[in-house]
Every structure is written in structure tokens, then in C-alpha cells.
Amino acid sequence: MTHSEDNHLPKHVAIIMDGNNRFAKKKHLQKGDGHREGKNVLDPIVEHSLKVGVKALTVFAFSSENWNRPQYEVDLLMELLKDTINEQIPRMEKFEISLRFIGDRSRISPELQDLMLHAEQRTAKFCNMTLTIAVSYGGMWDIADTAKRIAEQVKKQQLEVDQIDSDLFGKMISLGDLPPVDLLIRTGGDYRLSNFLLWQCAYAELYFTQTLWPEFNVQELEHAFGVFSGRERRFGKTSEQIQQEK
What we know:
Structural class: alpha/beta
CATH class of the domain at 12-138 and 180-193 and 203-231: Alpha Beta
Helix content: 40-55%
Number of helices: 9
CATH superfamily of the domain at 12-138 and 180-193 and 203-231: Decaprenyl diphosphate synthase-like
Order of helices and strands: EHHHEHEHEHHEEHH
Distance between the termini: 24 Å
Strand content: 5-15%
């Protein structure tokens, strides 16, 4: 099923990949195995998104709050991230996908920071799709960090206070050069945003599923796209106005 010409396809999809630990408990796996299983689910989701014409896919791998998890789990997640990046670089080159990372890198090991930068530089020229992995990321941090950078420009007289508006802010925040998020998917059965892409998801359609992330598949992704295409997106207008514009 290809939707590339279809207006009903989300241009930018964001996923909160939740439920790895519960999957491990359900399957009586060892500690950490849920995260290992979850890592393998991403590839078919990326490939299918590319195939149907999604322009940007952003996934929540590790939140600013996840630093509070037990140390062994934090270490494992960082190790898996390193493996993921090393595996993804050749795949990004094969499919001509640009790989990016968003989040506060100051808490990440210098070795991993270097690897992230290397992956970004190697894939920067590709434009079939942008895959963004949010690591050490929080939406409130993102908004505060953008405000801080704008304040620095005002202080250096590179920017007038009167020039600051939501358009400028939207360009300067993480992913500001990509379309806003159209569809936010959360696996694992919780109904909250968990501080993910708060600015970028202002008008996103939300899709929540009980499916745990290691069990999420292309069929369910297609179902989410179907649900998305059946929703009327009004952006503050009335249904009548939207119909007239069509």
C-alpha cells in the first residue's frame, strides 16, 4: 500500500517506544532483554515509513528523566544506543536517510557523543527521510534551551526582542527545519506525552496503543496511518471551513 501521493499520510511521525520492561516480564526474560528486543523493532518501522513517503520519523529512545533509572539499565541503554548507531550508519547510507539526534548531550559519554556526531556528519547529505533519535531529551528542556539561545542572541544584539514570535521560536527549536509532528504514536498502554516534543506536537494527532513496543509491527503502523487519515484536522477552524477549502 503506497500513500506517497496521499494527503492523508503524516509527513512527520513521532513514536514513544514504551513497554520494553513489561514485555520482558511478560515473557519471563532476563533483565534488559526487553530493551534488546525493542531495538530490533525499529528497522522495519523505518523502512516502511520511508516506503510510503513519510518525510521524518522521530523516536524517543531515552528521556532526561531516564537518567534516574537503575545504573545497570542506564548503562545497558547507552550500550544499545552505541550498537544501534553502528548498525544504522550503513543502513542509512543504503536507504539515503539522514540520521540525527536531539537532546542534552552534556550528560552523554564523550565516546558516544563522538559517535553521534560522526553518524550525523556521514548521513547529513541524504534527503529521502530524516530519522531522529531523541536521547537525554525532554520537551521542557528543549523549550528552555531554545529560550536561552534566543536570549543569548538578544544579549549579543543579533536579534531584537520584537523579532521573537512563535515562528522564530519554531525555527530555532530542535527539528525546526522539519515539518511539525502530524502523528504521535505511543505504545505500551499509557495515555500521556511524557515530556516528548511538547512544542513540535502542538497539533499532532495522538494514537495510543496497548501493544508493547517489542510487539509493535508494520501492520499496526499502517493501522495508525489509517486512523490518522480518518481524522479531520482543523487547526482552530470549523469543519465547514475545512470542507470549503477542499
